[in-house]
Write a structure and sequence with these properties.
single chain; mainly beta; 179 residues; 8-stranded antiparallel β-barrel; 51% strand
């Protein structure tokens, strides 16, 4: 396992432990939901040849969980599903992600994740890192709508030798309800 993967695993473990720390019911909220994201690479990929089937834009579904202790911080775990492949893979891909977010209403934060796909040589990508800005507002009581933009710093598998940025930006929407 590479140093970057060990670092990502350690950070993800710390976030999970922090989320499971005992708190009073009045001091912490839990939200569950899902959404849709539209993504595009920062640069278009070359056409033809080895890149013919690799997409440089698409959409994905997201399952999302948020833990909100009292204060401005919140922790988010997402599982993103790419039906038509992602990250240099043309096979179905899933990407677990963890975020630390700050703010109420308007928020920002950082995150990290991995992409798993049978289309990768080892079945898993190198870790990627993200920055996110968003705005969340109440729809009905404890039902929340989250609109966000995410920039993903990512080196796609099998595309390291070409002069193109595979960093990805997404525009997304998620609906979450208090559990």
């Amino acid at each position: 396992m590479t140093t970057r993967k060990v670092t990502l695993f350690t950070l993800s473990s710390l976030v999970l432990v922090a989320m499971m720390a005992p708190t009073s019911a009045a001091a912490a909220d839990h939200f569950l939901g899902g959404g849709l994201e539209s993504w595009r690479t920062a640069d278009g990929l070359p056409s033809g040849g080895d890149f013919e089937d690799i997409k440089d834009e698409g959409s994905s579904w997201v399952l999302s969980y948020q833990y909100r202790p009292a204060g401005l911080f919140r922790f988010e775990l997402d599982l993103e599903y790419f039906k038509d492949g992602f990250g240099g893979s043309t096979e179905t891909a899933v990407a677990p992600q963890a975020f630390v977010l700050v703010g109420k209403g308007f928020y920002g934060g950082i995150g990290a994740g991995l992409t798993f796909s049978d289309g990768f040589v080892d079945g898993v990508s190198d870790p990627f890192y993200m920055g996110r800005l968003g705005f969340e507002f109440s729809l009905l009581g404890s039902l929340k709508l989250d609109l966000h933009a995410t920039y993903r710093f990512d080196d796609w598998e099998g595309l390291e030798g070409i002069d193109v940025s595979t960093d990805t930006y997404t525009l997304g929407a998620a609906v979450r309800f208090k559990i």
